[in-house]
Amino acid sequence: MPQDKITRLESNKLKDFIKVLPTFLLTISYFSIMVIGVTYSFFFYSEFDINIIKFVDLSDFLLAPILEPLSILIFVVWVVIVTIPEFI
């Protein structure tokens, strides 16, 4: 099988999976944005020698995408970069 055909088969499987479980895509997206936001906060506060991990609460993790809007922008740019080869 040529590599291009394998890639298309994998792409179709992923699209079918997303059609069956669309909430899974939403969950993975929110989790990714949350990790980006927490990572951003960690590096931001580490510049001031503050270990933010000792002081965070569960709500801080869950609200990281809202409190750090840059994390949403980073996620959108990442999704665009990853999906551009799909359309070319």
Task: Describe this protein with a few key phrases.
mainly alpha; elongated; 81% helix
Describe the overall structure.
This protein has 88 residues and is mainly alpha-helical. It has a domain at 23-78. Helix content is 81%, strand content 0%. The chain is built from five helices and no strands. The chain has helices at residues 3-20, 22-46, 58-62, 64-67, 69-87. It is elongated.
Number of strands: 0
Strand content: under 5%
Using only CA atoms, what is the Rg? 17 Å
Q: How many helices does DSSP assign?
A: 5
**Global geometry:** elongated
Topology pattern, helix = H, strand = E: HHHHH
How would a textbook summarize the main sheet? none
Average pLDDT for all residues: 81
Helix and strand composition category: mainly alpha
Q: Flag low-confidence runs.
A: none
In helices, the fraction of residues equals over 70%
Distance between the termini: 21 Å
How are the secondary structure elements laid out?
Elements: H1 3-20, H2 22-46, H3 58-62, H4 64-67, H5 69-87
Helix pairs in contact: 1-2, 2-5
